[in-house]
Design goal:
alpha+beta, 14 strands, globular
Length: 250
């Protein structure tokens, strides 16, 4: 009976909430920039994140070069394969990302200015320059870790301008959560969190203010104190129907 009860509760949550509430609704008033609006490719809809704060991800990276050199990117720039840029499906444009090649330990920083890759299993499409810096330009694909550094801001130093970022999260230890929803209504966020607590006791509602002043309430489930364990929990939630789930570090 207890097993059937939990199955029933899980079904109620998944059918009534998960797919429908996993994404941030478009706020009323002025429309967000085109690069921040949901978009559909090959029948699948993607929902760009309002912020890159705390974003970490592991998966396969690829790169694109001569065939796209000089073409327009998603943010309107001309793609330059010799600049350190990249395409990502949901990170905000102009986010700087620390990319680590997990196969050889090499690292580089890229700026997101395009959307993609739309090949199953791949999480980022790098420029030729970035792929070469990571030592993956010959094989074409490598397993990488992404850590969002934020949009970066320029400061003046005695040696000239320098770009600085938010503190990079420690991926070996810390507090990792999986975000499963974000709402403009605090009431809706709390109602969703109460439903989730029937299965996951460590659910939190976190208030977030976007740069344009819009307030959102993020629903996050505590996952683990290590990134790898948090990614395993993310996979469990995705299999349960939370297609928009992703790990954040706090």
């Amino acid at each position: 009976m207890r097993y059937l009860l939990w199955v029933g509760i899980l079904a109620l949550i998944l059918v009534g909430c998960a797919p429908r509430l996993s994404y941030i609704p478009s706020p009323p008033g002025p429309k967000p920039p085109a690069t921040q609006r949901p978009y559909t490719v090959n029948g699948k809809t993607y929902y760009p994140l309002p912020s890159s704060k705390g974003f970490v991800e592991e998966g396969l990276a690829s790169w694109y070069g001569p065939g796209f050199h000089g073409r327009r990117t998603a943010n309107g720039e001309r793609y330059d394969m010799y600049q350190f840029t990249a395409a990502h499906k949901v990170l905000p444009m102009n986010t700087y990302v620390l990319v680590t090649n997990l196969e050889n330990g090499r690292q580089t920083i890229v700026r997101i200015n395009d959307r993609g890759p739309f090949v199953k299993g791949r999480i980022i499409d790098l420029s030729y320059a970035a792929a070469r810096a990571l030592g993956m330009h010959r094989q074409g694909v490598a397993r990488v870790r992404l850590v969002a550094l934020g949009e970066g801001h320029e400061i003046k130093t005695a040696r000239g301008p320098k770009i600085v970022f938010d503190k990079i999260p420690d991926l070996t230890r810390g507090r990792f959560y999986v975000q499963v929803g974000a709402f403009r209504s605090l009431k809706n966020a709390r109602r969703f969190s109460r439903q989730l607590r029937r299965l996951y006791p460590r659910v939190e509602v976190v208030r977030y203010r976007r740069p344009d002043g819009q307030i959102f309430y993020r629903v996050q489930i505590f996952a683990a104190t290590s990134y790898k364990a948090a990614k395993r929990f993310e996979a469990v939630l995705e299999a349960a129907g939370f297609s928009g789930a992703f790990v954040v570090a706090r």
